[in-house]
Automatic annotation (TrEMBL):
GO terms for cellular component: cytosol. One of its GO terms (biological process) is peptide metabolic process. This is oligopeptidase A. Keywords: Hydrolase, Metal-binding, Metalloprotease, Protease, Zinc. Residues 34-156 form the Oligopeptidase A N-terminal domain.
């Protein structure tokens, strides 16, 4: 026993840390660390239930401490699984996850806590509470009901079994996607086979081959290895002249995790069946209704918005396709009359190059990561009056490429920190880009005599790593992605909310949470902002003015087609969570095909299994919520239009409007309803008009 308690004393997960000990947490710490944490939290919870009173100090403060501790420590483990996956870490998490879910259910279904919140809501002092406190009480009551607090014995038992199983299935789903992505490797030795691939892609393919044991691989002479990781997959689809290579890689991509021992098909069936059962137990018709209970939209409003955008996008998307066929025909392509999925990206790139004289690859030298970050931080200073400084070495990191930054106010006091993990590491890091919280701002959890604990965020991307001695040279899309994730981080970091349960991104309705991230993307097209970033990494020269003009002109290129793509994902998500009948006449793939006919100009391939890697809705937080991207895009485009109205050429107008944005959308967190916050910033309710205008889809919308 003594040995065990010694080991616990030195377990990094159980220490009182100012910054998470990412550098020393190992898989061996997970089982004992999480179990001991849960044991301690169980004691804290029992004490809270014994002594609870319907007051802030006797209910919310002790509750926040329990919730936060679990979030922070589990957050460390979960984050490492996303960025530093290993078989040992997987099995450790798999083993303790049921115990963690069991505790969460026990906490979420606590009757004494629920009754105390109800008592606050029904008390005579309710009207004197701040907006933020009212929102916390209302959300806690709503969440408790969705967590099954009102269920009796048999039903509660069934509900809890479902929650445990869903958690396991989600983990397995995302592991299968990672493993299936990792499994595909195509080694190419004949340079003719990869004709058209730009130097950056050849460099990366040779670097990948070298890592896989072909030590003499070079960009010039190969061999080259193609994988399904985005920095490898996308250039093949955009640039490889070899049509059969594009077909092979495309098919592998849309059929990931759909066969053999990594097949997610049965897992999806099981997830949807259990989600529907859960909804029925709670008295809802379907899972989408549960999802919407904590969002701005209703199922009907979400479907209505998607249909409005779909009809505005359809004719332009049909025209996009016609343009491609004509262009490919004029270029003498044999496939011009039967262009299909693995041709579209390739010919779109050729058309973009011809129409706007823009070559994504030739732009890369102008977007080196260090310059992009400098420009982004300069914009943040102008808009929100903050200074961002590197603080490497202040906090432990999990990989040497990870950067650590501090955010300071105009008086040079730190107000937040963030980690930035920019590069793709296919062997251990999941794909995509995301922001997450490390610590939320909180008065209750302040330490060492400070008035408040400062917020800390994660920003994770998967962009092309530096090759040789060149910095990471980014595509314009990667630049937009960094701006996007930084927008999320800003809302987390610039919050002025002292109530930890609604600080930063906490407590914000999910369909409003993409507002600041999508808002920041607009600045990539703002002349002064872009010019401050776009400096050639070798010569330092600025991006030529005419190239900037062409980038702006190309912004709406294929906007109808790109809009439909998101609408397909959002619509199939809503259909699966409202109409799908487990073991019914229509399979999940039938539904995808049916939605595809309405949202894709070229029908989805019959063998397309994209759903098997749709992690957003089966292993992320977007189940019956993918529409949020479009919902929030309406909000973010309208928010940006406030800057257009004020005048994008005037630094004074930008500063004033930026200040208002900071004091409302970035400051208020989940402490006010998103609609109220939006109206306070914009002076009116949101309108979809700016989004359609920005995408060049307005005239069509009017006739539709």
């Amino acid at each position: 026993m003594a040995v065990a308690s010694d080991a616990l004393d030195s377990n990094p997960l159980l220490q009182d840390f100012a910054f998470p000990p990412f550098d020393v947490v190992e898989p061996k710490h997970v089982r004992p660390g999480i179990r001991e944490l849960l044991r301690k939290l169980e004691i804290d919870l029992e004490k809270l239930e014994r002594t609870v009173e319907p007051t802030w100090p006797r209910l919310v403060e002790p509750l926040e401490k329990i919730v936060d501790r679990l979030q922070v420590v589990w957050g460390i483990v979960n984050h490492l699984k996303s960025v530093k996956d290993s078989p040992d870490l997987r099995s450790a998490i798999e083993e303790v996850q049921p115990e963690k879910v069991k505790f969460q259910l026990r906490l979420g279904q606590s009757k004494p806590i629920f009754d105390a919140f109800k008592a606050i809501q029904n008390s005579s002092s309710w009207s004197t509470l701040s907006d933020a406190r009212k929102r916390i009480v209302e959300a806690q009551i709503k969440e408790a009901v969705l967590n099954g607090v009102a269920l009796e014995d048999e039903q509660r038992k069934k509900f809890n079994e479902i929650e445990q199983e869903l958690e396991k299935l989600s983990q397995k789903f995302s592991e299968n996607v990672l493993d299936a992505t990792k499994k595909f490797e195509k080694l190419i030795t004949d340079k003719k086979e990869i004709e058209g691939l730009p130097p950056t892609a050849l460099g990366l393919a040779a670097q990948t081959a070298a890592l896989k044991g072909h030590e003499n691989a070079s960009a010039e002479n190969g061999p080259w290895m193609i994988t399904l990781d985005a920095p490898s997959y996308i250039p093949v689809m955009q640039h490889a002249k070899n049509r059969s290579l594009r077909e092979e890689v495309y098919r592998a991509y849309v059929m990931r995790a759909s066969s053999g021992d990594l097949d997610n098909t049965p897992i999806i069936g099981q997830i949807l069946k259990l989600r529907l059962e859960k909804a029925k137990i709670l008295g809802y018709k379907n899972y989408a209704e549960i999802s919407m209970a904590m969002k701005m939209a209703t199922v009907e409003c979400a479907a209505e918005l998607l249909e409005k955008l779909r009809s505005a996008s359809w004719d332009p998307a049909v025209q996009d396709m016609e343009d491609l066929k004509t262009f490919a025909g004029n270029a003498g392509a044999a496939e011009a009359n039967q262009l299909t999925h693995w041709d579209i990206t390739f010919w779109s790139e050729r058309l973009r190059e011809s129409k706007y004289d823009i070559n994504e690859e030739e732009l890369r030298p102008y977007f080196s990561l260090p310059k992009v970050m400098d420009g982004l931080f300069g914009l943040a200073k102008k808009l929100f009056d903050i200074n961002i400084e590197t603080a490497d070495g202040l906090a432990p990191v999990w990989n040497n490429d990870v950067k650590f930054y501090s955010v300071k106010d105009s008086s040079n006091n730190p107000i937040a920190y963030f980690f930035f993990d920019p590069y793709s590491r296919p062997s251990e890091k999941r794909g995509g880009a995301w922001m997450d919280e490390v610590f939320a701002r909180s008065c209750v959890l302040a330490r060492d005599g400070a008035p408040v604990r400062l917020p800390i965020a994660h920003m994770v991307c998967n962009q092309t790593p530096p090759v040789g001695d060149k910095p990471s040279l980014m595509t314009f899309r990667e630049v937009e992605t960094v701006f996007h994730e930084f927008g999320h981080a800003l809302q987390h970091m610039l919050t002025k909310q002292d109530e930890g349960l609604v600080a930063g991104i906490r407590g914000i309705e999910w369909d409003a949470v993409e507002l600041p991230s999508q808002f920041m993307e607009n600045w990539c097209y703002h002349r002064n902002t872009l010019m401050s970033i776009a400096k050639h990494y070798e010569t330092g020269e600025s991006l030529p003015e005419e190239v900037y003009q062409r980038l702006v002109a190309a912004k709406t290129f294929r906007a109808g087609s790109l809009s439909l793509r998101q609408i397909r994902f959002a619509s199939v998500d809503l259909e699966l969570h409202t109409k799908y009948v487990p073991n019914g006449p229509e399979s999940i793939f039938d539904i995808d095909q049916r939605v595809g006919r309405m949202t894709q100009v070229i029908p989805v391939l019959p063998e397309d299994r994209f759903l098997c890697s749709f992690s957003h809705i089966f292993a992320g937080g977007y189940a019956a919520g993918y529409y949020s991207y479009k919902w929030a895009e309406v909000l973010s485009a309208d928010a940006f239009s406030a800057f257009e109205d004020a005048g994008l050429d005037s630094d004074k107008a930008i500063r004033e409007t930026g200040h208002r944005f900071r004091e409302t959308i970035l400051a208020l967190g989940g402490g006010r309803s998103p609609l109220e916050v939006f109206v306070e910033f914009r002076g009116r309710e949101p309108s979809p008009e700016p989004l359609l205008r920005h995408n060049g889809l307005l005239p069509v919308a009017a006739s539709a």
